[in-house]
Amino acid sequence: MLSSLVRNAHGSAIRKMFNATVGQSDLINFSVGEPDFITPREIIDIACTELKAGKTHYTPNRGILSLREEISKFHAKEFPCDPAENIIITAGGTEALQLAIFSLVDPGDEVIIFGPSWPNYLGQIQMAGAICRMIPTYEENDFHPDIGDIRAAINTRTKLLIINSPCNPTGAVLSKETLRQIADIILEYNLYAIVDEVYRNIIYGNIEFVSMYSFNDVRDRLVFVNSFSKMFAMTGWRVGYAISNASVINGMTLLHESGVSCLSEPYQLAAEYALQNSLHRCSAMRDEYRERRDIAHAMLNQIDGISCVMPKGAFYFFVNISKFGLSSEEFCMKLLESQRVVTVPGSGFGACGEGYFRMIFAASMDKLHCGIERISTFVKEIS
Ligand code: PLP
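A: This is the predicted complex of the input protein with pyridoxal-5'-phosphate.
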């Protein structure tokens, strides 16, 4: 018999929808959360050159120092961090999150997350044997958590919070006031928090983006997580990083050594090059997403019965379909069967996501036009 870890594991709803489509043609797929852009050419070239030059060996477990130095420079204006002690390079933000959770919680500890949330948090918390407490957030509140709800969820077993801003799936960007209030709670109850900012470079308009990691007084209780995946359209490369105090980073490095050991050197060098030379690419991609967001958002909101708030960051619409009286899973499955459009049911992001579906808008304008027309046809069918 397989282990209880596997028997109790639930795959994510995103992958479930993705798998339901295998072998089908004429699909318009808005399910998987990655940019449609290919990694900028110059970054690919660096990786190829380094590989051909024979960079085929292990690197230090916590990553090559020159990349950690570049990351430290990249964040220098917002917060200080020592490249030797405070940074670890990981297999995407995903591994950074897992190492942070495994370093901070014991079986039976409780972890607070805000729903609707990225489903992998739940899987990782369960793998650590910890208990997940999801605090719902609501559209009418800009998907910001209620501070009273956070206080009410804390008990003696509470150890950790996970804060994701900009948020997948809602696109919410948490305000400075909310972050400050959460930071005060962390200090008051001696908790830790993971600050997942893998979408921090994808913010639209004049929204003020504040990282909780920039608050000096709470920084020692935090693990900051970022990744090259969304920033430089490098999802398949699996390069991310975490920043925290030396003791947490040492703990994460020990676990990383047993699991992944280290990342490929050419990819680390290419990531270093990207931070030095290709930041303009991030803004160009963001501007493109903004244009697509504005047009696709208007199209979606013209469909009778559907409504969608304007996402402030990341590249997802969290679309309200509560008027149709179908569960979000029924809605998405019927939409797939009838119109061959792939979306993700809101319930896959937690019970409070019921009544919504998530679709990505980091897709070509043609695909968005055609997909939203098909959604409109489907809505007429079921209305
Ligand atoms: N955090 C959030 C909120 C995400 O949506 C994702 C990916 O979709 C990740 C972390 C991890 O991304 P990666 O492992 O590709 O860096």
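Residues 33, 92-94, 118, 164, 168, 196, 198, 227, 229, 235, 240 surround pyridoxal-5'-phosphate (CB under 6 Å). The domain at 41-277 is CATH 3.40.640.10 (Aspartate Aminotransferase; domain 2).
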